[in-house]
Amino acid sequence: MITHEQCLYWDQEDELKKFKDEFALPNNVIYLDGNSLGARPKKSLEVAQHIISKEWGEDLINSWNKADWWGLPTRLGDKVAQLIGAEKGEVVISDSTTLNLFKVLSAAVKIQAEKFPERKVIVAEKDAFPTDIYIIEGFIDLINQGYQVELIDGADDLSHVLAKDVAVVVLSHVNYRTGYFYDMESINQQIHDKDALIIWDLCHSVGAVPMDLNQSNSDFAIGCTYKYLNGGPGSPALLWVNRNHRDEFWQPLSGWWGHKKPFDMAQHYEPANSIRRYLCGTQPIISMSLIECGIDIFLQADMQQIREKSLKLTDLFIQLVQQECPQFGFELITPVNHKYRGSHVSYRHEFGYEIIQALIARGVIGDYREPEVLRFGITPLYLGFEDIWNAVQQLKQIMLNSEWKNERYLVRSEVT
C-alpha cells in the first residue's frame, strides 16, 4: 500500500522541488495539463512588462537592434538546442508547429524527389495529432505529383510499410493521446536503412524526455514551446534541420526574414546560408521573448533528473489509480514499460469527458481527448508526489459519489 506519508517523504527527498517556486500556480489547484499548456514562469510577467514598456514603449523601432529582436529566433534556438541534442546554429524558433511541419515536409520531399523520384509514399501515424495528417494531406493535394499518405497504427507497422516506396516518415516522438514514447535512434536506423527520411514531432517530448537529434541521426524536427517548455499560449514553435540537409533545399514559404540579405530589399529570393532560411516573415516578438523564461529554468535543471522524476510520478499515478480506483473501469492506455512511456498518463473511460469536468470543478486540471480518453500531464518541475496522491483521492471521491453524473458536466465546451 502506498500512503500519504510515503508521498510526503518522497517530496522531502526530491532534488527538483525547488523549481516549483519558479512558477505562478493558483492556490488549491493541482495542474495536470502542462502537456497541453505549461504553467506560467513567474519571471514572465516582469519580462513582458519590460518589453512592452521599455523596449517597445521607449526604444520603439530601435529595439530591433538595441534589444536584438532580429536575432531572437536563432538566439532562443541555440538555447533550445541544448535540450534536444542539437548544436548552435541548428535550431530556429518561428511560426507554429503546423507551419513548420509544412516547411520541413516540403524540404524533405524535394530532397527525396531528386534522389528517388519513384518514391511517392509519406507515412504518418493514424493516432498522430490531427494537424500533422491534415498538413500532409494538404501538401499532397497542393503539389499534385502523385504522392499518397500511408497511416500506420504504431512502431510495429513500420517495417511492413517501409517495404513500399516511402519517401518520408512523420512521427510523434511521444504520442499525444497514449503517451507512447518512440525509441528515436532505432526508428531512425530502420527508416534510413530503407533510404527514407524522418521528421520528428517533438510537441509532447521536448522538455519532458531526454533526446539527442544529432546522435540519433535524425533528419528534421519540429515542436511547440508552450507545453513542457512553458513558453505561453501559442508561443512560436521550434524547427531543427540536420546540417546535412539544411542547404540542400530552402523551404517554400520564402519570406524576407529567411533571405540571405533581407535589408538589400532585392527583387528575387536568395536563401540565407544558415538555419534562418526556415524563417518566413516578421516574428511575434512579445510572445517569442517569453519563451526564454521557461527555457532558462530548464537549463538550470538536469534533464536526466527530470526524466527520472517523471517516471516516478507517472508510476505513482498508475499505481494509485490501481490501488484507490480499481472498481471504476479505468483502462490504462499508456505503456507501463518505462522505455516506451512519455510524461503523461492516459486512461480510457466511457464517461471520460464528464469525469474530467468533475475533476476540474474540484481543482484538479487534466484534459480530455476523443475518444473517451482522460489525460494527465506530469510536469516534474512543478508537480510533487503529494500532488499526485491528492489528485487520485479527488478522482476516487468523484467516482464514489457519482459526481460526474451531474448534468452540468454533460455540456460540451467549444474547447475540450
Automatic annotation (TrEMBL):
The keyword Hydrolase applies. It catalyses: 3-hydroxy-L-kynurenine + H2O = 3-hydroxyanthranilate + L-alanine + H(+); L-kynurenine + H2O = anthranilate + L-alanine + H(+). Pathway: Amino-acid degradation; L-kynurenine degradation; L-alanine and anthranilate from L-kynurenine: step 1/1; Cofactor biosynthesis; NAD(+) biosynthesis; quinolinate from L-kynurenine: step 2/3. HAMAP family: Kynureninase (MF_01970). The modification N6-(pyridoxal phosphate)lysine is found at K227. It comes from Acinetobacter oleivorans. SUPFAM superfamilies: PLP-dependent transferases. This is Kynureninase. The lineage of its organism: Bacteria, Pseudomonadati, Pseudomonadota, Gammaproteobacteria, Moraxellales. InterPro entries: Kynureninase, PyrdxlP-dep_Trfase, PyrdxlP-dep_Trfase_major, PyrdxlP-dep_Trfase_small. Catalyzes the cleavage of L-kynurenine (L-Kyn) and L-3-hydroxykynurenine (L-3OHKyn) into anthranilic acid (AA) and 3-hydroxyanthranilic acid (3-OHAA), respectively. Its cofactor is pyridoxal 5'-phosphate. It comes from the Bacteria.
